[in-house]
UniProtKB/TrEMBL annotation:
Heterodimer of an alpha and a beta chain. It comes from Sandarakinorhabdus cyanobacteriorum. GO terms for biological process: DNA recombination; regulation of DNA-templated transcription; regulation of translation. NCBIfam families: hip, PRK00199.1. InterPro entries: Hist_DNA-bd, Histone-like_DNA-bd_CS, IHF-like_DNA-bd_dom_sf, IHF_beta. Keywords: DNA recombination, DNA-binding, Transcription, Transcription regulation, Translation regulation. This is Integration host factor subunit beta.
């Protein structure tokens, strides 16, 4: 599912909201999740899952074209852990 599909489904289920309002709501939710992760906080949506970040250490990688060694800096990457209800729904 892509963002426009999500907006269309939410707008269809909530006819009292305009598509523009739904787009603003979806964008705000995604922006708030991204901002919280950028600040190093954890975001938990009960029944769905939790978003957090994980640290990746610096390492030496390889350029796939040339095979030469390339230094890869340390970084933080997003991580998602599904909630119990989501796991149960997937495995039902």
């Amino acid at each position: 599912m892509i963002r426009s599909e999500l907006v269309a489904i939410v707008a269809e289920q909530n006819p009292h909201l305009t598509v523009r309002d739904v787009e603003a709501i979806v964008t705000t939710i995604f922006d708030e999740i991204a901002d919280a992760l950028a600040e190093g906080r954890r975001v938990e949506l009960r029944g769905f899952g939790a978003f957090s970040t994980r640290a990746r250490e610096a390492r030496t990688g390889r350029n796939p074209r040339t095979g030469t060694a390339v230094e890869v800096d340390a970084k933080r990457v997003p991580y998602f852990k599904p909630g119990k209800e989501l796991r149960e729904k997937l495995n039902a």
